Amino acid sequence: MPRNMRDIGFATFNLYNLQLPGEPWRGSTPYTQADYDVKVAWSAERLRALDADVIAFQELWSPQCLRDVFDRARLSQEYELAFIRESGWYDIAVAAAVRAPWEIRNRRVVKDFPEGFVLRKREVDRAGGNEDPDDDIEVLIRVFSRSVLQLTIGHRDAPEVPPIEVFAVHLKSKLPTRLDREERDRPEVNAHARALGAALSTVRRTAEAAALRIVLNDVMRDTDVPVAVLGDYNDSPNSNTLAIVTEQPSFRFYADSRAGRTSDRGLYVAGALQALRSFRDVTYTHIYRGERDSLDHVLVSEQFYDHSEKRLWSFRELHVWNDHVIDGDTAPASDHGVVAARFDWNPP
User: For residue 294, which of 239, 223, 215 has the smallest C-alpha distance?
Assistant: First the structure.
């Protein structure tokens, strides 16, 4: 069936440390030209297969790398690329691509946590008669480990289609954070470095999820703005991380239910929309020590939920390319599955 020009597909694609040949990346051996050519060719092949209108990328080290992928895929004339900046990167970063007739109308890079982000609970004064004296905590994180890229996209040929706010994200990984030398030099601390490092990563990822939620609140609260949040969350659909970001909107499970009719700030996980139509849920985007998990997600606002009173698009399908994902360090070009979700223009 031919696509309506107002239909839209969102995708997320982890490029697995895509860096130019001869250039350093995280202290590892630089890629040879042959290594780089293999990664670019593989990524270009996946790019053509996913056929999405809006794509969020993670683990990119240079804008030129992504341009090379699009050139190899022969798609450079069809997409507009967006980066956190054109040069001066010091680590992996997110990027995005938007295909005509959709166009980028505004872009914003979010590095600092927003105003209103406070993770602090003061020590309770026992003399005051309070019963919770052990809850004091303060988290001092103030920036995203990987900047968030926010795009406002519009449809150049369909003025009735409202602009969509798209966020490309990459939250802190589950890998244990390396302790600083001061802590590593203390035997009683270093003996537990893995557990402590994992806790540090979890605290940062949770803080980033909360900060992202605040950014989303400012866009979504009391508005009808369509929103899509695409990326590598480094956590599963039922994790606390996703619960914070999505705010866990209600789903409609039977005809007479009122659930899901409105959800001003909620985000729906496309994988969950797909699972509700499937007899089995076998989707995964990553394998670590034999455990299959979904870490890469397409999240959408109520404007993309079939049963919402504010629906503009309906969910069609979710595709996950994961045959290449293996449990080890020899993935050809990505250690994550590539995820694409498609939505049909379908106002009520």
Answer: 239
Name the maximum alpha-carbon separation found in the chain: 71
Q: Residue 124 is which amino acid?
A: V
- CA distances to 54, 83, 94, 101 from 154, rounded to whole Å, are 11, 18, 21, 8
Assign 3-state DSSP to the chain and report helix, strand, coil percentages, each to 5: 25, 30, 45
Query: How far, rounded to the nearest angstrom, does the alpha carbon of residue 115 sit from its chain's CA centroid?
Result: 22
* Ramachandran class of 9: left when φ > 0, alpha when ψ lies in -120 to 50, beta otherwise: beta
CB 110 within 8 A of CB 142: no
Burial (0-12, 13-18, 19+ Cβ within 10 Å), 51: middle
pLDDT in tens, 110-169: 999 999 999 988 876 666 556 566 778 889 999 999 999 999 999 999 999 999 999 999
Confidence of residue 334 (pLDDT cuts 50, 70, 90): low
For residues 32 and 336, what is the distance between their CA atoms, to the nearest angstrom?
A: 22
Q: Tens digit of pLDDT for each residue in 96-109?
A: 999 999 999 999 99
Tens-place pLDDT, residues 282-322: 565 554 444 555 688 999 999 999 888 899 999 998 888 76
Q: Yes or no: is domain 8-111+145-172+202-345 CATH 3.60.10.10?
A: yes
Torsion of CA 313, 318, 319, 320, to 10 degrees: 130
Which amino acid belongs to residue 257? S
Phi-psi group of 277: left, alpha or beta (phi > 0 → left; psi -120 to 50 → alpha; rest → beta): alpha
d(CA 108, CA 89): 16
How far apart CA 4 and CA 12 sit, in angstroms, is: 22
Residue among 306, 322, 313, 310 nearest 342 (CA): 313
Angle formed by the axes of helices 33-50 and 63-72, nearest 10°: 60
8 A C-beta contact, residue 295 and residue 286: yes
- The predicted model scores a pTM of 0.87
